[in-house]
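To whoever is on call:

I kicked off a structure prediction for a single chain this morning and the downstream step that reads the tokens threw a length-mismatch warning. I double-checked the sequence; it's 79 residues and nothing unusual in it as far as I can see. Pasting both halves so you can look.
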Amino acid sequence: MSKICKITGKRPKTGNNVSKANNKTKRKQYPNIQKKRYFVPELKRTVTLKISANAIKTIDKYGLLSYLNKKGMSLADVM
């Protein structure tokens, strides 16, 4: 499963685990990606998207199509 948000473009970041002895090993910090189904009344169908929790909150506030228009995207770009 890809760890990239379809709308915001959030992807894993890299960093270090630092022990008490100051040993450093590589690690990844993954974004909170969820699978979410949305009903689009204009198309009369549901769409499943893999998006971040931040994008879910924003879509709940503005609506899917208006948020995509605001980002300069269309529904075909995220499917």
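Update from on-call: the warning came from a stale cache, not from the record. Cleared it. Sanity check on the structure: The chain has three helices and four strands.
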